[in-house]
UniProtKB/TrEMBL annotation:
Keywords: Oxidoreductase
Protein name: 3-hydroxybutyrate dehydrogenase
Database matches in NCBIfam families: PHB_DH, PRK12429.1
Documented EC number(s): 1.1.1.30
Similarity field: Belongs to the short-chain dehydrogenases/reductases (SDR) family.
Keyword NAD: no
Matching SUPFAM superfamilies: NAD(P)-binding Rossmann-fold domains (SSF51735)
Keyword Transmembrane: no
Domain of life (superkingdom): Bacteria
Length: 257
């Protein structure tokens, strides 16, 4: 389980799931490059406290030129990327006929196309080293749909398909490519939906959380970033070398029903 000497780039890792995964990888000894917006010093200090090398690049994942600059930074400062976690993502909820075109474009760019760019840039270095892990954070919405999330569902289904295709291209190499499909995780992204539900139904925060879970997640428990980190770490082990092109649901039974 020891990832000492490996470098992980986790996109969108200044908060939520990405930060949880970055911290779990760092606990296993991996050096970490953080990415994302908002508070950077806090997450950097949390990772550094685990005794690994930590970096940050503020690439906007909707911009291919930024992503290329982040790869250049990773090559120069860390000797490349061994573990690529494509996690950055946004969401917008609206009926399709009212869905703003710019929101559609942003969701497809950040949640799907960014993984194409990071992968095509990081993969040659992994193949040259003979070892690599690419882990795409999709969603239960990459396996099943919900209404009013057309762009998000399309992007996450696309990310699962992209995962499978690249896994087949790399099947005989030391690079594995998989997706993880979380159900509800109580991050800032989901708290916004809890707030909207509380306002719509006129209920408090706890009742809104209960209703959100009851609608989709049979376990009635949120998945945590740390649990998703543990699955990510497993996919990085040598024992997982034959796990290729899979979409791992960690969703409290959401997609089992
Ligand atoms: P979050 O809002 O807490 O964090 C998102 C991260 O992405 C932040 O660090 C943010 O700064 C970064 N980010 C946003 N736009 C960016 C951009 N253009 N460029 C670079 N970074 C950007 O969200 P989260 O809930 O932790 O979600 C992380 C991933 O997990 C997303 O892909 C999301 O779709 C997926 N996911 C979340 C849940 C959930 O229940 N929270 C469930 C399934 C899948």
């Amino acid at each position: 389980m020891n990832l000492k000497g490996k470098t992980a780039l986790v996109t969108g890792s200044t908060s939520g799931i990405g930060l949880g995964i970055a911290l779990t990888l760092a606990r296993e000894g991996a050096n970490v490059i953080l990415n994302g917006f908002g508070d950077v010093d806090g997450p950097k200090a949390q990772v550094a406290a685990l005794g690994v090398k930590v970096g940050y690049h503020g690439a906007d994942m909707s911009k291919p030129a930024d992503i290329a600059a982040m790869q250049t930074y990773a090559d120069a400062e860390f000797g490349g990327i061994d573990i690529l976690v494509n996690n950055a993502g946004i969401q917008h909820v609206a009926p399709v006929q009212e869905f703003p075109v710019e929101k559609w474009d942003a969701i497809i760019a950040i949640n799907l196309t960014s993984a194409f760019h990071t992968t095509r840039l990081a993969l040659p270095g992994m193949l040259a080293k003979g070892w690599g892990r690419i882990i795409n954070i999709a969603s239960a919405h990459g396996l099943v749909a919900s209404a009013q999330k057309s762009a998000y569902v399309a992007a996450k289904h696309g990310l699962v398909g992209f995962t499978k295709s690249v896994a087949l291209e790399t099947a005989t190499t030391g690079v594995t490519v998989n997706a993880i499909c979380p159900g509800w995780v109580l991050t800032p992204l989901v708290q916004k939906q809890v707030d909207a539900l509380a306002a719509k139904d006129g209920v408090d925060n706890d009742e809104a959380k209960r209703r959100l879970l009851a609608e989709k997640q049979p376990s009635l428990q949120f998945t945590t970033p740390e649990e998703l980190g543990a699955l990510t770490v497993f996919l990085c082990t040598d024992a997982a070398v034959n796990v290729r092109g899979q979409a791992w649901a960690m969703d409290g039974g959401w997609t089992a029903v």
